[in-house]
């Protein structure tokens, strides 16, 4: 077996990339202009990914009333049903991305998830909308591993965290757009129309991606396939890198908090502050509290979260230039600060005050994306980056996306039995906020392991 394909040699290469951000690529990088275009187009696609994934959160209360659902069913629909297939199919889709043109894979996936978003709006029962949400998860499974590995192969290594931080703006900004779009459309035309409006643009964007998105990696040839590690070899490498698993654990816990809370933010405000929000909506000309909450919460999530991802990515590049554990430390510090601030916000008094105060903890809570994803991309050879990303996302989403909304809903139902629905969801949000301390610990352990080159 040649040294290019021997797993132990590849482990050494991966560790070198982790501790030496100036490492070179195995093939020529695209021009700076071409790389910027790819990063921004993929960021727009990722935004649409989160519009279609998260729009269900602003529509949760109308769907609950129309279909007669319990909170656990909302959690299953928004999280578990989506995540089951999103996480499971991520790895086989990533294996395809190691072999074929990643831009075309992303374009095809975009068509699938956009189509099933439209189908969500046609659903009339819990089972139907659950299956449609599963379809969205099937389509989105191939996006993130392909996109992140493509970005890692398009930019210099010392700019990787910044580029992935830009890409990660798709999470908060897409969530912003989903909340604003969903709130305004649902208030005037109903929740079904909101799904249809959200899904339609994906077809056009898929055509643009298919025609213009360049993959800098050489195409699948016998020579390139010789460097493609089997899944067992990738897993063998990762088993020798504790930093990977600490980063994955920290990200999973962070996502548990994020996805679980986002699924119930709108319900929290509508159940506790409807009169106040109705008056605020009327004063600024909105049709009702749902539209007002969607726009206000969307702006808070999108602006604070978007800035947080950019700042986190740039800090990650700066920290890691001086400290091999810099990626992990940026994530650890941000989550250590975010947890108590987020928990305290929900007791701040009025609904408008809470909306404003959410800006700070949500800024901090989004800083981990760029540094953590950059750390993951540096732990594996180029031909296996999609697979490593998919394995990482499997851990992240199984614990976060899969269980976050479901368990938050169950906690809400549990507290509601003693304190009522309004206070039940408040206490559920507070309880999940405090879990952020565990993610900070995991990111710190990752930083320690990265300093040791493990």
From TrEMBL:
Gene name for this UniProt entry: exuT
Membrane topology: Multi-pass membrane protein
InterPro entries recorded: MFS, MFS_dom, MFS_spinster-like, MFS_trans_sf
UniProt keywords, alphabetically: Membrane, Transmembrane, Transmembrane helix, Transport
Domain named Major facilitator superfamily (MFS) profile: residues: 38-448
Organism: Sphingomonas jeddahensis
Cellular location(s): Membrane
Entry's Gene Ontology molecular function annotations: transmembrane transporter activity
Transmembrane segment boundaries: 34-51, 72-93, 105-131, 164-185, 191-213, 244-270, 290-312, 324-348, 354-376, 388-412, 424-444
Any Pfam family hit: MFS_1
One term under GO cellular component: membrane
Protein name: Hexuronate transporter
Keyword ATP-binding applies: no
Domain of life: Bacteria
């Amino acid at each position: 077996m040649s040294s290019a394909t021997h797993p132990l040699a590849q482990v050494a290469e991966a560790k070198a990339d982790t501790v030496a951000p100036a490492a070179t690529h195995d093939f020529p990088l695209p021009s700076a202009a071409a790389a910027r275009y790819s990063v921004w187009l993929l960021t727009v696609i990722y935004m649409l990914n989160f519009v279609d994934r998260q729009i269900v959160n602003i529509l949760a209360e109308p769907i609950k009333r129309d279909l007669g659902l319990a909170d656990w069913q909302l959690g299953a629909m928004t999280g578990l049903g989506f995540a089951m297939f999103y996480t499971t199919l991520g790895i086989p889709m990533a294996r395809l991305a190691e072999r074929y043109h990643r831009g075309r894979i992303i374009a095809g996936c975009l068509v699938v998830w956009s189509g099933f978003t439209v189908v969500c709006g046609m659903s009339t029962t819990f089972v139907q909308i659950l299956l449609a949400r599963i379809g969205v998860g099937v389509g989105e499974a191939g996006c993130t591993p392909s996109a992140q590995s493509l970005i890692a192969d398009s930019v210099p290594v010392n700019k990787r965290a910044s580029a992935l931080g830009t890409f990660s703006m798709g999470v908060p900004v897409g969530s912003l757009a989903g909340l604003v779009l969903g709130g305004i459309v649902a208030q005037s035309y109903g929740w079904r129309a909101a799904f249809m409006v959200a899904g339609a643009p994906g077809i056009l964007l898929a055509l643009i991606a298919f025609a213009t998105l360049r993959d800098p990696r050489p195409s699948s040839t016998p020579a390139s396939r010789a460097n493609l590690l089997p899944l067992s070899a990738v897993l063998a490498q990762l088993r020798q890198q504790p930093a990977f698993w600490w980063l994955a654990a920290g990200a999973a816990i962070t996502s548990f908090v994020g996805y679980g809370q986002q699924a119930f933010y709108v319900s929290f405000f509508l159940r506790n502050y409807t009169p106040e929000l109705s008056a605020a909506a009327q004063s600024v000309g909105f049709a009702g509290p749902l539209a007002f909450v969607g726009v206000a919460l969307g702006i808070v999530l999108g602006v604070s979260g978007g800035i947080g991802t950019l700042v986190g990515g740039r800090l990650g590049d700066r920290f890691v230039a001086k400290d091999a554990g810099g990626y992990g430390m940026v994530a650890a510090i941000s989550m250590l600060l975010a947890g108590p601030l987020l928990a305290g916000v929900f007791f701040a008094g009025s609904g408008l005050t809470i909306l404003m105060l959410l800006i700070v903890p949500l800024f901090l809570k989004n800083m981990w994306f760029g540094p953590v994803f950059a750390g993951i991309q540096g732990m594996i050879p180029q031909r296996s980056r999609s697979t490593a990303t998919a394995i990482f996302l499997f851990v992240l989403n199984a614990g976060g996306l899969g269980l976050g909304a479901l368990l938050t809903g169950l906690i809400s139902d549990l507290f509601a039995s003693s304190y009522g629905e309004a206070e039940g969801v408040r206490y559920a949000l507070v309880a999940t906020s405090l879990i952020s301390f565990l993610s900070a610990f995991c990111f710190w352990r990752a930083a320690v392991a990265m300093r040791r080159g493990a």
